[in-house]
Amino acid sequence: MKTTWYCPLDLSTVLEEEEDGVxxxxxxxxxxxxxxxxxxxxxxxCVKAGTEEKLVQHLLYSFAMGDSSFITIFLSTxxxxxxxxRVLDILIDRLQHPPGESTKSQTRQPFNRAVCMxxxxxxxxYPEDFRSLGEPGLLLRLAPLLPSDPSGTEIRGRLLRLAxxxxxxxxxxxxxxxxxxxxxxxxxxxxxxxNILGFPAGLIAEQLTKIETELFVRLVPYHCLGSLWxxxxxxxxxxxxxxxxxxxxxxxxxxxAVMASCLWPTQLRSQQRACLxxxxxxxxxxxxxxxxxxxxxxxxxxxxxNPVHRLRRTWLETxxxxxxxxxxxxxxxxxxxxxxxxRELLKEEGTSKFANLDGKMTNRRQIGSSAQGTVPYLxxxxxxxxxxxxxxxxxxxxxxxxxxxxxxxxEVLAQIRLLQSSCKNxxxxxxxxxxxxxxxxxxxxxxxxxxxxNEIEVPCEPSSGRTLNxxxxxxxxxxxxxxxxxxxxKLFSSLLLFQHMKxxxxxxxxxxxxxxxxxxxxxxxxxxxxVKSHRRSVSCGNNPTNNNKGSGPEMRIVRIRMDLxxxxxxxxxxxxxxxxxxxxxxxxxxxxxxxxxxxxxxxLIQLLPEGKELVIPATGNVFYAMxxxxxxxxxxxxxxxxxxxxxxxxxxxxxxxxxxxxxGRRLFF
Length: 669
Fold this sequence. Notes:
It is globular and about 85 Å long. By secondary structure, the protein is an alpha+beta fold. α8 packs across α11 (270-289). It has helices spanning 52-58, 70-77, 84-95, 108-125, 127-131, 137-142, 150-171, 201-218, 226-229, 242-263, 270-289, 293-304, 306-309, 312-317, 320-331, 340-349, 378-391, 403-423, 432-439, 446-456, 494-502, 581-591, 622-625, 651-654, and strands at 10-19, 22-32, 39-50, 401-402, 471-473, 555-564, 567-576, 602-607, 613-615, 632-637, 664-666. It folds into three domains: 51-171, Son of sevenless (SoS) protein Chain: S domain 1 (Son of sevenless (SoS) protein, Chain S, domain 1, Up-down Bundle), CATH 1.20.870.10; 195-481, Son of Sevenless (SoS) protein, Chain S, domain 2 (Orthogonal Bundle); 510-520 and 535-654, Ubiquitin-like (UB roll) (Roll), CATH 3.10.20. The strands form three sheets. It has a five-stranded mixed sheet with strand order 7-6-10-8-9, with helices on one face. It starts with 9 loop residues before the first strand and ends with a strand. 39% of the residues are buried.
């Protein structure tokens, strides 16, 4: 019996070519002719890497070369490797020397069309880039160089109007209106926690969805780029990523409202407090129905926090069915399989339609809104982008900008923009009574939360009746203004990591995660799930090893902090099984912008649970000397007494989400 093999008519060959400061991935497609063996081929070029100047210039030629997505990706991500001023300077220089001898030449016309296409898209999608210039000089230089055809004339008019705005702003005091400022502190004497029981759960969820939707629509996607977000706590960068900070504040504010309403009335009976838990569980369910995953997660995180979950008597009085629903909602954010359930829900429900929860919402009346977008938990995207930024180098060994990295970042940003588009047509009705209650909630810090919780139920107080079988679950909350997160290297797919390992120009281990530690409010935002990789996983909690014998040392990412003038900063450091203590200290000092030559003057201390510490020997191998119970370390001068060591430190506080000493508990009856 003979088998016939059919060869496809279209064959593609992918090549890599370098030409004048740019590396291209070239795709050559061959079509076999039927009558003869002759073939025809088509060729397209896609930029892989290049110098800043060549990447900017490629904006004007990419479409003609078959790299149709380049303009969109560049405009979405260029701020991670250059500035608006630099891009405009390069484009202005190019426009001053256009191709062709006349405006009607065969080379000038497609060039002019490309110029109009780039600036039309840029002005439409990112007008804030031009407003951020601060002064009109560049725009006034650019405007006369644009083509004189109708498209160029229209763009010139828009640029001149922006230049006029900048001139006026230069004469006026700063009156930025697109920054969301925190609300003034609430008056605790006017706060009545039980008033929340008077609002229908659907109304509360609708008002929360209104707040979240308005913030999400105003979110600037590129603010989520890891290279920008990781710089937010540095001096002089307090105003970067303002749209993400606004989302963070709302997340923290809602989580605080849930905790405050459950803890503040210390005189309430357990049955009354159980009604508050049941109310918030119902609100969370209504948020789920409205595809408001941000508010849903804030509520679930607050209920999982230790001050609330330790109230055994209250949970014993809570309706069994309500607890069951709470467990179902909590499972949405399970870290199993890289938060697969959360991601799958975003794919399924990233539309303007209502959620269909097994038909439960079919006949349920929606309050106020005529369409329903999807508001995601932003932490998943921020984590993915931060992981990508730390895992892939910005530049190749020859100094070229790694544009392949920008393509991968754009894939995440495109998901955000797609979800934003589903929210733009949502219409809501404001309920002033609920907003007044919401604004009256006082802010509780960690110590206050525990004090109130302990007043309600004394620690280690025995309980009667039904018993609970608690299991520890890490809760995750944002911080209030600063919103730092602990980068767990556990989220990349096998394919991405495998691709990185194959290329000597790409590193998965260049990490720089910093955040202040003097916040009184819980902090967090990063899911923690082991990576499934062909060769190696990189994490903070598990030991990433190379399973191939003889292929390299074992590796681990740890966090090291030290007391600095600009705050208590964390840095993530790669530790291999070959590293001795001086090497790790030197790397940590360098990451903290300190002199690595001062390493002999410092000692390395591992921070363990229950306030314990382990001093790593000066001549020891850090990888094998440290215990596996914590990834947090302290770097301090020998013989010194830093603020960190003046009181016990718990890794539950520093290495998990939130920094609220969180031991959330799943309840089983």
